Amino acid sequence: MTVGNPVRLIIQFMIPMFLGNVFQQFYNIVDSIVAGQFIGVDALAAIGSTGSLMFFVTGWLNGLSSGFAIIVAQRFGAKKYEDMRHFVAMSIYLMMGFAVAMTIGFLVFNIPILRLMNSPAELMDDVAGYMGIIYAGLLVTAAYNTLAAFLRALGDSKSPLYFLIISAGINVVLDVVLIRFAGMGVEGCAYATVIAQAVSAICCLIYIIKRYPILHLKKENFRLQQGSFGRLLSLGIPMGLQFSITAIGTIIVQSAVNIYGATYMAGFSAAGKIQNIIGMVAVSMGATIATYVGQNRGADRMDRVKQGVKYSWIMLLIWSGIEMLLVYFGGKYFTYLFISPSQTDVIQVSVTYFRTVFWAYPFLCTIFVFRNALQGMGYGLVPMLGGVFELVARATIVLLVAGRTSFAGVCLADPMAWIAALIPLIPYYFYVMKYRQNQSYNIK
């Protein structure tokens, strides 16, 4: 990504990323669709209420792997291939260690966490069973995220997409078989998700072995070197925390929604999943920017960094306008995917959410541009600080309105969080670009 037209390169890389992210979201979305259509509102509410918690858990692993992959992309852009392989090996150590620790910790504290989230007693068994299986499968989640991140660091965003399409198809089939025919309930959805993710991880590994000799590791690549873990963690932890802090904010909002009961939980869940799908364009563009900026920083092409960020921002602002129209006029009909049109109360909850937040989508899209550009250049602290601003804004709104006003008041937590996140991000990005203007940056 260090040569050629920036717009063309970014779009070519982003489209497979977008489709891949959609299919990755597909797991929980299909679980919700099948549960809502074949089991009922309570099942949709149970699985839907886990979305923010799953985002917290998988977001941490995704953030870590994305942060580690930035260093891999920088070394690849600088053509320091032996150094790149060493950081790939160290990333594997770290990702597996985090996955094992998280599996143990979350299984132990599964019920207490759900109680803190105000999960209704009548849904507790279903929610706890679903999340327990997801926690047990975190190793395969970490494996896929890590391997896919390595491929994207080298500029290959298509292969992870193909593997996700395969595993998403498996997930759909297993969902229907385990719920509709085996009668396993919401736990069947969780088993289907873990098995499908394992397939995608295995496919990634086989593909890397066969097609990417540059990523073939030797014994010496796994030797510990002073400072290697520190370099990886200096980017991985801030990115993981950024995802986690954002997820904590959504968990706080989910906890507030849970107070209103299963109908609101189901409607809020459906709206959130629709918004996540539509928002995947911005998420994918952000991941593309991180890789693009990382490679061009490694090649000392800061002029291309500036161009890429500018054009990406313009494209996302245009897309945010399309998003606004889609959810304002079509949100009601998208909700039919998850619940029968006869469930008018649930559908009205989704419509209320969309009508409350749609105007703030340009702010949300802007976050992904500047946050990921800073991360691609190796700055992890301020993007994480943006997440802290998000968390504070969400928590403040929830504390002020939860249980005191209507559901629409709780919905305002998202727009306020998106605006707050930009307070540190935009000024710091322009400060960094001005500081580096006419200077050459060499990776140490």
TrEMBL record:
Signal peptide stretch: none
Assigned keywords, A-Z: Cell membrane, Membrane, Transmembrane, Transmembrane helix, Transport
Membrane topology label: Multi-pass membrane protein
Alphabetized GO MF terms: antiporter activity; xenobiotic transmembrane transporter activity
Membrane-spanning intervals of the chain: 53-72, 92-113, 133-154, 161-184, 190-209, 229-254, 274-293, 313-331, 351-370, 382-403, 415-432
Principal cellular location given in the protein's record: membrane
Subcellular location(s) of the protein: Cell membrane
Cellular component aspect of the GO annotation: plasma membrane
Pfam families (UniProt xref): MatE
PANTHER family associated with the record: MULTIDRUG RESISTANCE PROTEIN YPNP-RELATED (PTHR43549:SF3)
Entries under NCBIfam families matching the protein: matE (TIGR00797)
Protein name, per record: Putative efflux protein, MATE family
Organism, as annotated: Blautia obeum A2-162
